[in-house]
Specification:
alpha/beta, 5-stranded parallel sheet, 14 helices, 5 strands, about 60% helix
Length: about 325
């Protein structure tokens, strides 16, 4: 059950109004942005990006001339890299990096990759820190206006298809289950053949959502491409805003997560993808408050009756 302080005690959800549009702005967390777009950068820009990821504090305190000497990359390329990340120039990137480093907790400035001989106490601490950081990074770059636009199309959809495989398939299933719970016709497809079959039948007024950490998963790209041709509004949930999936989508929501030896990219981003799904779900439930509230009550009552009958049957044995 979802509770909101502004609602009556018996209401699971409280309605909200859409936020006013805002002008585009530089990324709130440049480190997360660099990590997300790294695969899409040119080799020279990747060299600069890796410097930022390896030691953002060093880059923040270095002049463009010093970074050029350390990296072997021309100052012009460094400026172009900064602009491709959404900044006016290198100086603005430096200031943003300095602010990002200052916001980080001290333990997060220390490498936290899991090692084969780590005791479980360290495993717990490192995984917790990594997932907390992934959530913080995702929240920092989850633009309310972009999220609101997705809430609008999903709330008004005739039907919602969600495509994802492997770890992203789990996220897709979670999204479909949540939307179904508030009365929307939502279906998850983790099999490419079934996804393509469903996508071929969508039309204008439907929504197709692709979930992929890299944004390059063929089993997700194919159905989303077909759904787009059919007239459905398309949504991407991905780590990479420059991916093929992002290019296909009308709306893009960016997740974050740092890959390590024991946490491949898809697993590292799963928790942040789930955060996006939860925010989207609550937004849709608020936007369709009356219908969602009734659906939540009906589904809760049905499950309660079923579980009550099951318990009575067990006690009677």
């Amino acid at each position: 059950m979802i509770e909101n302080q502004g609602a009556a005690p018996s209401s699971p959800i409280a309605p909200s109004s859409p936020a006013a549009p805002k002008f585009p702005k530089a990324p709130a967390n440049p480190i997360a942005t660099v990590r997300a777009v790294l695969p899409s950068l040119t080799p020279a820009a990747q060299t600069v990006a890796r410097l930022i990821l390896d030691d953002p504090a060093m880059v923040a305190r270095s002049t463009i001339t010093e970074i050029s000497a350390v990296s072997g990359i021309s100052e012009a390329t460094i400026v172009r890299t900064a602009r491709s990340l959404g900044f006016a120039g290198y100086s603005q990137l430096r200031f943003a990096l300095a602010a990002a480093v200052a916001r980080q907790a001290p333990e997060r400035l220390v490498p936290g990759d899991l090692a084969p001989d780590d005791p479980l106490t360290d495993v717990i601490a490192k995984v917790t820190n990594a997932e907390s950081q992934a959530l913080a990074d995702t929240a920092a770059q989850l633009d309310p206006d972009r999220l609101g636009a997705v809430v609008d199309v999903v709330a008004g959809a005739r039907r919602v298809d969600v495509y994802g495989v492997a770890a992203s398939g789990l996220v897709a299933a979670d999204m479909a289950q949540k939307l179904m719970r508030i009365g929307l016709s939502a279906h998850c497809f983790t099999d490419a053949h079934l996804a393509l079959t469903s996508a071929a039948l969508v039309r204008e007024g439907d929504v197709a959502v692709g979930v992929s950490c890299t944004g390059e998963t063929p089993d997700v790209l194919g159905p989303l491409r077909v759904a787009r041709k059919g007239g459905a509004a398309t949504v991407a949930i991905t780590n990479n805003p420059r991916s093929s999936l992002a290019e296909l989508a009308d709306h893009v929501l960016i997740s974050a997560g740092r890959e390590t030896a024991f946490r491949p990219g898809a697993l590292a981003s799963r928790i942040s993808q789930l955060l996006i799904v939860d925010c989207l779900f609550v937004g849709v439930a608020q936007r369709t408050f009356d219908a969602s509230d009734a659906a939540l009550r009906a589904t809760r009552d049905a499950l309660g009756d079923y579980l009550g009958d099951a318990r009575r049957r067990i006690r009677s044995i």
